[in-house]
Structure formats: structure tokens, C-alpha cells
């Protein structure tokens, strides 16, 4: 009888260990399920980033009449929203043009660029693109002298130009809390000069812009 009672105690102890092991495995499985669900929610809520490109890979220039002594710069900036869930806004846009010896990453873009100017805001619906015509009339005071002379007097083309685009991307989120990113794009290589529709410019392909992630905040 004593031997049987001892065997019964061993069996109960084994069952207790088995139950404890089952609970431990179940807890691990639950944790893994929660992690997978949370990551899935993050993927669903995380919007794709806005994509930019310069149509025709060029910034066209048109010398204005002599009494104005200015050159009109004209480019088309295309914004694409790859997300199928959210609308995106590209706001507070500033464009800088740099020659091939000045890094676009400079901390003083207004001082170091050939020219800087503002562009209009863009609103891009889900899985759509929007073109924005960016125009500015530049005088010799707005541009560094050698480049103004090239475009205005000599009507040359400046090659290997980098365009930096700074702005703020606001993404609508279904939760009602907009996501705001300070964004920077580099578009290279570009031509500055020429006329819209001429034979040379028609052969230039679009130039995609590289997104350089900036700081992020919620509003």
C-alpha cells in the first residue's frame, strides 16, 4: 500500500509539471500572437512615403525683355502617392538649385545655392499623382552672377545640377491624428536652361528624387 501511495504522489507531481509546462507554452504562444498582431497593425497604419520626380529632368529658362533684366525659370514637379489608404499633403515647399561642386546637404542652403524659391503646396489622393508647375522670375540679385549671365545673356545650359526640395509631408490617418514629416529630397542630375518643347528637352527623361528622411512629429 505504501508503495502504491508513493507511486501516486510521483504521478501527481509529474502531472503538475506537465500542466506548468503547458501553461508556459500557452503563454509564449499568446505573446507571439500579440506581437504579430501589433506588427500587422503597424504595417497597415504605416503609410508609404511620397515620391517626387522632375518631369523632363530639367528646369527651363526664358530670358525676359531687356527692360526687366530677368530670367524666368520653369519646372514641373510630380508628386506620387503610392498608398492606397491615405491622402498626402506636401506643404511649405522650398526649392534650391546647386552646382556640381556644392553639396546639397549644406546647412546654409539659401547662401550656398544658385537660387532658392518657394513652390505651391500639393495635395495627392491615394494611388494618384499630381503635377505642380513651379515658376520664378530671377534677377541678377536672386542668382549668383556667373549663372545668371549664362542663362540670361549667353542662353547656355547648366548641367549636372542638383535640386534640393524641402517641405512638410502631412499624412491623413484614419485614427484622426495626422502624421507630419519634415522631408528633404535630392533630384539629380538636372539641366537648367533650354526651352520647353525644343528638340533637346523632349529627349530628356524624368528624374526621380531621392527621399532623405527628416524628423517626425504628430499633430
Can you tell me about this structure?
This protein is an alpha+beta fold. The chain has two domains: 1-45; 51-218. Helix content is 27%, strand content 40%. The chain has helices spanning 2-45, 109-112, 145-152, 199-202; strands at residues 51-54, 58-63, 70-80, 88-98, 115-119, 122-124, 129-139, 158-171, 179-192, 207-212, 216-218. Strands 1-3-2-9-10 form a five-stranded mixed β-barrel. It starts with a helix and ends with a strand.
Short description:
The protein is of the alpha+beta class and 219 residues long. 27% of the residues lie in helices and 40% in strands. The radius of gyration is 30 Å and the shape is elongated.
